[in-house]
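User: Fold this; tokens only.

Assistant: Input:
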Amino acid sequence: MIGLSPKNIKLTKEKPIVAVPVIEKTKESIIEKIKALASDDVKLIEWRLDYYEECLDLEAVQSILCELRKPLAKTLLLLTMRTKSEGGEFDISGEALNDYYINLSKLNGFDLIDIQYHDSTQEIVKECSLNKKNTILSYHNFDKTIKDDELANLLDEMIKFHPDILKFAFMPNTDDDIDRTIKFSKKVRQNWHGRQILISMGEMGKKLRLNPFLTGSCVTFGCEVGKNSAPGQVDYKELSCNIENLLVKRKIIFLVGYMGTGKTTIGKELKNRLHYKLVDLDVLIEKNEGITIKEMMAKEGEKYFRDVETNTLKSLAGKNKLIVSCGGGAVLREENRRFMKENGVVILLEATPEQIYDRIKHDTSRPLLAGNMNVEYIAKMKGERDPLYKEAAEITVMTENLSKFDICEKICNAYGEP
């Protein structure tokens, strides 16, 4: 993580922050806008220098930075210059651009500098480091998401530059491009032991902007309404609220599905992979009640058991890093479904009635299947519950013909963990 003293704002994939670009043209409007965003508790403001009409006058830039020192006491400031060939507003290139970056890094009053990747930028990154400026090394492609072998080569080259943060932004043209970007983000994490930002642009790419956990990004970029600086940016207030909601929900993973779909097995595997605590809801109920569920159902009836199930489920509110393997009927009550959706990520494990029967046909601890252990009854009962499972679930994984490792891989890809 980067702890930017004395502001002490940490950039981590566990708690990504929202950056908001400022694209004003004049000194007065720039200062006014940055002050307003800082007072709105924006943690990272990106000043897009290429929009500033006096951007080549570094004395003018420094003058603005000096006036912003106090307003930005608790806000990070990122300086970014984008040329027209890089999707920006200013026409500067070659040695003139390199010199601009180096001289810019000598100014005071900002925290990070964004440098667009090309073959000659390694020396710029070194100079910025010598001037004690944190660097974001960026690659943008506004036309496509490049091929996997090109992505691998690009990553290898950019790592050699030793920036503080690597940033990649691609334009997706298919859903597969989104999936490849998520897959590439894992490769970045495996090979680069630093911070990263991965973005898919445009309307199709909003999914990754709204959920930076999917790519392990420490920063995602929003904008003020009508003032986007890149394709697909969304309102920063909406984006911030979405991340806060995700932070709450990511504390608990609820595994749901019909009996025999593998919730216990997958829960154990996820526990080992994510280092979360695992709770089997039925086991917890039996421990708390001092009686088996089969005995409870026979003695007190199903309604009593469902009341206990609801109360036990709600007792988990506020827990952190928890995997909850739920009984097959936990979704039957609307209040249970609502609680799970509001307090965690609900993952549905699916299997065919035939596969379920094959898994549980010798299990005598299933009171709801007593005397009905057959494929037809399982199919009927599961079919009645399927709409409730689907209503509750945020992520659905078909488990048929997959190993527990493959199932966990699918879950982690959708959840946003390596």
